[in-house]
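dude i think i finally got it to work??
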Amino acid sequence: MDRRSFLSAAGALAIVPLAGRAMAAPMEYKPGLVTEKLKAGETVFLDFKASWCTTCKAQERVLDALKSENPAYEQAITFINVDWDAHGKSDLAKSLKIPRRSTLVVLKGDAELGRIVADTSKGSIKALMDTALTAATA
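look at this
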């Protein structure tokens, strides 16, 4: 084995353990998905966001950090991204009375368990995620 092949193989093996710890990507919203997940008894965490929104990006950084700190969030909660530009005027957004992008909502069954609008504080987002985790494990 030449040096280049060895280094490539060693590098690939080095990242394998990291792949096992990688966070799962949230599901992307499509009509009917939320209803399907709620009917299956799942706790759903909706993130109404836009790719150009700086508040949404800040919320995403906090969400990712919290998920890294506590893997139970991703194990128990169904995270769904809702593209505001594509679905901001959808039946889902209307039925939940979503006022704007950068809105985070937790649902279980027929109930809304909590929401945050344009808040990027780690404490607020953690409290909402803890509410979702409690509902998911109850």
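Strands lie at 27-28, 43-49, 77-83, 103-108, 111-117.
im so relieved honestly
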